[in-house]
TrEMBL record:
InterPro entries: DNA/RNA_pol_sf, RT_dom. It comes from Paramuricea clavata (Red gorgonian). This is Uncharacterized protein. PROSITE patterns: RT_POL. Pfam families: RVT_1. PANTHER family: ENDO_EXONUCLEASE_PHOSPHATASE DOMAIN-CONTAINING PROTEIN, REVERSE TRANSCRIPTASE DOMAIN-CONTAINING PROTEIN. SUPFAM superfamilies: DNA/RNA polymerases.
Length: 366
């Protein structure tokens, strides 16, 4: 990838984000030609001469350039067609849900005593316009087909319409059905992936308007103080740095040689498997109610979780649609906050009297 090609790619992306589709298409065609030429030149300089004189080195170099050794690839990754592969991935991603016990979703009557009876606050048109302006133009387009750059560039014109949609959703305590279908993109955990069942992470591509709605709903209705201080992920002014500082300071305090008794540290590192995908909706909704949120926000969140569906997308090919009976979609604005609520009380299972400090970073517990 030459500096000139990178410059042209940057110009192409700028044309796309500003809506100049004529220039975008011209640059896209030009870049394809430049990349083909660069690949040919790179091939000639690296491996062409070896093909005739040293076949073994030629094959090894080709494998290295591709990023894998062919013999190490799992046979399951090889399929006759993209449509077969995309269905295999869909079945793999939804397989954990088939083993789950049926969850019991609490009714409003079950949790009404824990909820605040207040009218839900709604955003102003100005707040909606600001949220539209803050969208990342480079983010992928969701199932509604509306790209982020359209909402961002035309935020003045779109704000009143978006405001009506958002306010109706909040007041009626209903999450729009059209926003519940996610396009799932399989992202390799390792490069190259060798095991189709374990080497892919599913990332949900959701409508950009859904992200605006969720962002404003969280800001207006879920206080950040409801999450314990030992959670360092998805919370304001917290990060991996604060998590490491907290852990190391606790260990230093225990092992400090100035104390009369020198103590040791026993550390346990826990990483839960598929935690976002296996969040129990019934348990989550009960925990949300215990945080004394408003009745309207609780009902809206229940609607957000209900009847979600997903399709896997690979190289332009879509799988069949399947329901999502558990979990929170990775890629949603709501999901990190809901996950933090779900894992918020994990330390309550520790018996009293034990000197144990827990530090959480999402699903990683120390």
């Amino acid at each position: 990838m030459t500096a000139y090609i990178k410059k042209e790619i940057k110009a192409r992306q700028k044309a796309y984000t500003t809506g100049n589709m004529t220039k975008y298409r011209q640059l896209a065609d030009k870049i394809i030609t430049l990349i083909k030429k660069a690949k040919a030149e790179f091939y000639s300089s690296k491996v062409k001469s070896k093909r005739k004189h040293d076949a073994v080195k030629w094959h090894r170099t080709i494998s290295q350039l591709a990023g894998f050794e062919g013999d190490n690839l799992d046979n399951n990754l090889i399929s006759d067609s993209t449509s077969d592969t995309v269905e295999i991935l869909q079945n793999i991603f939804t397989k954990p849900w088939s083993k789950l016990p049926e969850t019991i979703i609490p009714s409003l009557e079950d949790v009404a005593s824990s909820l605040r009876q207040e009218n839900p606050p709604t955003p102003s048109i100005g707040q909606v316009k600001t949220a539209l302006k803050q969208l990342n133009s480079k983010k992928a387009t969701g199932s509604d087909g509306i790209p982020a750059w359209v909402l961002k560039r035309y935020c003045e014109e779109q704000a009143p319409i978006a405001h009506d949609i958002i306010c109706a959703s909040i007041k009626e305590c209903e999450y729009p059905t059209a926003y519940k279908r996610a396009l799932v993109i399989p992202v390799p955990k390792v490069n190259p992936p060798r095991d189709i069942e374990n080497d892919f992470r599913q990332i949900s591509i959701l409508p950009q308007m859904a992200k605006v709605l969720e962002k404003l709903q969280l800001k207006l209705n879920l206080p950040s103080s409801c999450i314990n201080d030992n959670q360092h992920a998805f919370t304001s002014k917290r990060s991996t740095v604060s998590a490491l500082t907290n852990i190391s300071q606790n260990w230093f305090n225990v092992t400090d040689h100035t104390h009369s008794a020198k103590n040791g540290v026993h550390a346990l590192f826990i990483d839960f498997r598929k935690t976002f995908d296996l969040v129990d909706h019934g348990i989550l909704l009960r925990k949300l109610a215990e945080m004394n949120v408003t009745k309207a926000f609780w009902l809206w969140t229940r609607s957000f979780l209900e009847d979600r569906r997903q399709q896997v997308k690979l190289s332009g090919t879509l799988s069949s649609v399947k329901p999502c009976p558990a979990g929170v979609p990775q890629g949603s604005v709501m999901s990190p906050a809901l996950f933090n609520i779900h894992i918020n009380d994990i330390e309550n299972s520790i018996p009293d009297g034990l000197s144990i400090n827990i530090c959480k970073y999402a699903d990683d517990c120390t």
